Amino acid sequence: MRILWGLPNDPRVRYTNRPAQKYPPDSYDAWLVSGSAAVNHGIDTAKGEWICCCADDDEMTPAYIETLLGFAERYGFGAVYCPVEVLGAIFPRARREGDKVVLGTWPPTPAGQSYPLLWRKNNLRYSTDCWTTKTPNDWDFWTRMMNAGVRFGYYAEPLFRFHPSVRQAVSE
């Protein structure tokens, strides 16, 4: 297997370039829309029927896609998610499940967590101006999906890990 920049040269992976995203001048407002253009570019260029995102501080378990996709298809969901295991930090809404610290609940709530979402491709995109309503882009996207009638499902086992930076959480 050939390696390209440390990643396997897998025919299922395509590399693309996109123009840089323009951000609001305020750092909090910029955080609210961070990555929106990149996610939209990914949605627009994806060839598959299902979409999921994984940021640089996220980690999918090996079973994530297969398990959630099977769950979505089995029960007719248009979007599915699971709790996120948080590594090395705690958050106000986090809870302990055995030896794990997790975020995520049913029903979905703002500031609980909005990753990891696996959804059937549709005509909705991340907003690049949600900062005007002080709403994080991922929660804005989820809300618009729910308002559009997308049926959400919750898989109760954590299949996704979050590695927060020091700025994002309180250390244990």
Any chance you could write out the topology, listing elements then pairs?
Layout: E1 3-4, E2 7-8, H1 27-33, H2 36-45, E3 50-52, E4 58-60, H3 64-75, E5 79-81, E6 84-86, E7 95-97, E8 100-103, E9 117-120, H4 137-147, E10 152-154, E11 160-162
Give a verbal description of the structure.
With 172 residues, the protein is of the alpha+beta class. The chain has one domain (3-168): Spore Coat Polysaccharide Biosynthesis Protein SpsA, Chain A. It is built from 4 helices and 11 strands. The protein has helices spanning 27-33, 36-45, 64-75, 137-147, and strands at residues 3-4, 7-8, 50-52, 58-60, 79-81, 84-86, 95-97, 100-103, 117-120, 152-154, 160-162. It has a 5-stranded mixed sheet, with no helix packed on it. It has a 4-stranded mixed sheet with strand order 3-9-5-10, with helices on one face. Strands 1-2 form a two-stranded antiparallel ribbon. A hairpin with a 2-residue loop joins strand 7 and strand 8. It is globular, with a radius of gyration of 16 Å. It starts with a strand and ends in a 10-residue tail after the last strand. The mean pLDDT is 85.
How would you sum up this structure in a few lines?
The protein has one domain: Spore Coat Polysaccharide Biosynthesis Protein SpsA, Chain A (Alpha-Beta Complex). It contains four helices and eleven strands.
